[in-house]
Amino acid sequence: MRKLFRYMKPYAFLAFISPLMMIGEVVADLILPYIMSFIVNFGITGIDINDAQKGSPTAAAIMRFFHGNDYGNMDIIITFGILMLAVTLAGGFFGVFCAYTAATAAQSFGNDLRCHAYRKVMSLSIEQTDKFTTGSLVTRMTNDITMVMDFMEMLMRMFVRSPMFLIGGTIMLISLNLQFGVILICALPVLIAVLVIVLSKAMPLYAVVQKKLDKVNSVVQENIIGARVVKACVKEDYECGRFKRANTELRDVNYSVLKLMAVISPVLTVLQNLAVIAIIYIGGLNISIEKNGMDTGTIMAAVTYVVQVIMSVMMTTNMFQSISRAAASARRINEILDTEPVITGGAVCEGINKETAVEFKAAGFHYPGTVGRPVLSNINLKIKKGETFAIIGATGSGKTSLVSLIPRFYDTVQGEVYVDGVNVKEYNLEALRRKIGFVMQKSELFSDTIEGNIRWGRDNASEEEVKAAAKTAQANTFIEEFSEKYNTFIAEKGASLSGGQKQRMSIARALLRKPEILILDDSTSALDLATESKLRAAFKETLKDTTVIMIAQRIASVMEADRIAVLEGDGTILHCGTHQELMRESSTYRDIYDSQMKSGAYAGTMEGGL
Amino acid sequence: MENRKEQPKTVNANMPRLGPGGRPGGPPGGPMAARVNGEKPKNTKGTLTRILKYIGKNKIILISLLVLMVAITMIDVVGPMFQQKAIDTISFSGGKLKVDLKSMGFYLIIMGVIFVISSIMTFFQGVLSAKLSQATVYSMRNDLFQKISKLPIKYTDTHRHGDIMSRMTNDVENVSNAISQSITSLFSAALTLVGVFSMMMYYSVIMTVIALFTIPLTIFISSKLAKFMRKYFVRQQRLLGQINGQVEEMITSYKTVVAYGRENEAVEKFGDISEDLRKCSISARVWGSIMGPIMNFLGNLQYVVLASVGGFLVITGSGSMTVGKIQAMLQYSKNFSRPINMIASQYSSILTALAGAERIFEIMDSPDETDEGRAEIDIDNIQGSIEFKDIWFGYVEKEPVLKGLNLSVKSGEKIAIVGATGSGKTTIVNLLTRFYEVGGGTITIDGINITDIPKEQLRKMIAIVLQDTVLFGDTIRANIKYGSLDADDDKMRKAAKAAMADSFIERLPDGYDTMLTESGANLSQGQRQLLSIARAVLAEPKILILDEATSSVDTRTEMHIQQAMVNLMKGRTSLIIAHRLSTIRDADLIVVVKDGKIAESGNHEELIEKRGEYYKLYSKQFAGQTT
Fold first, then answer.
1. What is the pLDDT of residues A261-303, one digit of tens each?
2. ipTM, 2 decimals?
3. Residue A418 maps to which CATH number?
4. Whether residue A425 sits in one domain with residue A379
5. For B307, which of A44, A248, A400 is closest by C-beta distance?
6. Cβ separation A498–B617 shorter than 8 A
């Protein structure tokens, strides 16, 4: 928590002013009852304002200031009435100004913190965002920051108010009569003990409530997303049962928390009134034994103060509750702020080797934090500039991992990767990634127009370039069919588009980048064969100087490549060569080929027919 | 979530769109897309009645709660009287203060007893209102979930998932809060108001009327101010939603962000929204903080006016005004503004709850999936022959996807459906499983019209594997067993082996007990598909549908799966939708869908001979090979 306070520094002045304003508001609140009593006592009841016992020198002085010595009761009512409204207005002004300064300071603080944390998140390496998980990062960026921000605002406003009432009330009470202080000393420990017991029991339950609520939500979410599977498996009743269980658990724990909290209010009422009774009785006793300094007014005042003190203890406890919650949030935010990206760039911006685009030297890899067989081991590859290089292999053999090493989504565990003859670890990250156009296996689109999505590749591209890229990616036709064409808005991560449409848009995005190296991670799998072959023809025409690295499942997609690497099940590469070479040398490749081409009639027809 | 409401354009649908599951849905942004903005309820009275009905299910709790509240309010009004009486035992006579300790003690004991009783009642009030709100919300949630599980697929396809989710969570939560807090405080505020009002009337009618002038003023100002403030609060909510959306989108697609070096743009865009939010929040808070002082001022104005008028009446001696009465009136006037403020502060949360309840009831009122079939079916004896007769269907009216499709599948056959994207292949599956209902024509299984078969029976005959796999946040074992809970482990392993999933599962540290994380992130796309296939295999269906189910699986693995399937699917019918030639080549019958009809059908060799649509689709695959 303390660490986050430094974000408050630029707004220290506002943060300082705000509590002062709050003091103004509190003072106004404390003055008002006095003015009201002046109106009642001197204006309406008609007590002599100058009476030595019951009069008030202050009130008399105020009246003398406005009216000299000649005024009636009505004048008293109206004068103090106006004064009362004036004080109310002043208090209100202080209050609003306090709110203004506190809100400005806290919101600006939150804004800075939010932007800083977000910049941090955007600098993290993929493995780190994997570790945090998406959901947790989103919660930290939103709920946790809001929590800390609200806490700061409360700190400036409420944290002044309640203690002021608490301390002020206690001092006033003791100054009235020491015995009243004794009552407070008896009442407060009981109150605090009850609060501590209840809250210490309730706080852990709140965490349980949150967990149960998450459970309920996740059942709902699974059922909405997986509605087809639930229905297809006729699992509606089963799911309803699952939900009912989660819902019952949530209800029960919610109920037990509320039941626990229901103790606080009655205890407060009893203590408050017992204290009031004690004060009145002690006051009465004092009067009966004719001790000086005790009168009705004193008793009334003491009653007011004791109620105030007990209420502010209550408020202060609430604040402690929010302290512990804000501290937990602050800890989670700090975890983000304290994380340093594991993958940082070097200084090199340009490659040196004009021949080799990508080279793997004895590269090995396993995902951070996993054990067991490495995903990739001892990979040695040299991919020439302008070459079309294909990678093929079994499910789970590490194809995606292999290409992820090139833009440094992850770093190798053993060996090195070179791009244009320079170790990727020495590149400036931006410079390295600018060389590469990467099309993911799962198309990731953003809430933007189609044009905006394609422009992710290169912001300053001209409209013609955008259209040209879409055309090469075979996306032009379907985009033109939309009534808004390139201005069509993509919602819900492209949920309304078919898989093939999304893939083609992602390819267009990568093409617009005019990358030196284009990586296609099984990104044509949802295209029908006709479209795919058109796409390949277009590539041939437009990507003459581009190094293309493609992962594919279909032999037909890879057999035209200049060279093909076969990734074995254990994450090694035994063979790499042209289609013909591999057909001779690699049994794995032949297996794959056979699995797709084994129909002799078909192959025969093809060879004969074309 | 909020930001999505703001998107001005949605994809124009001039062909069937794939819904969020990769399945055709209606056009996005159906009637619900223009969702009610903010918190204004439309049909207040009807919604209120329905909420009350829910609350009324727990009549005993409700009635005891009301009784308790009346009693507590009465004590709150009467209590201070005894305190006053106790203090009044102190008298001032002959320049000396005197006290009647005996009667003071008497009043104090009464006061103590009263407050102990009131405390006990307050405790029970708290417990009962907790019980009432929890019970109400519990049954509301259950009903809503049950309803959601009965909704047709079309509903989830055409409504934003986030929106349905937020009805289940935020809206229900708002209703819950309103029941546990607003209703009690509103009720007791109203009771206090009535009590104070009658006491004031009792003392002086004229002064009560004068005191009442602040009420319309209060209502007028607070409603004007609330309207003005609402602008900022709605905007603040929306910006908050945008921030959430931005963070979520950028983090879930973080790899693409990194690959395209868009980190700075993302930070910049975030900074802009964040700055807007900062400004808006400050305005919202400042305007929000003005409400209190204004109410305070109005309350004090009332006090001053009452004091002045009362003082005037006493001094001029008109009416029967006495000092005591004015004192009492002033005391009550202080108590008058408190419940009004309370009602004003609860007003917005009640509106929010009503709007939330309306959104909940909106789901509850949408029609159930139709399931009128009553035919008695013996699943074990189903042969699995399927017949589509003159099927017409469109997701959007006047835009038919299927136009008179005829298809007949014999029992035990393996049928492959091919065609370009958007030609309606998946639609055929949607109709067979009755996720959607046919527009015209009939579908029969073993000669029985599927509309006559109870849906439960129909779907038990069919197992379906989709391209976008759905895995639950549970163990691998539970995920495979999802379709057949009572299957034993041996059977499950056999299914996993058939789906070629066994070997990779065994390599995981926890094997079959591995927990799948959110959306199964710890598995590759292909491995997820293998698990879904294992699930379908274990279900031992009469009809198996694979809709692009192996698109991310390498072809050798796929071949092994197919071999296993041959044994497994003996005497069962399978429908396969795929692009990949290797997946479909061995099918008994390949049908090519084009323009909503079957363009041609036959086995692979026949269709290649024919040199028709199929030949066109697949010859291109090898265009490069022979050159």
1. 888 888 888 888 888 888 888 888 887 776 656 667 777 778 8
2. 0.76
3. 3.40.50.300
4. yes
5. A44
6. no
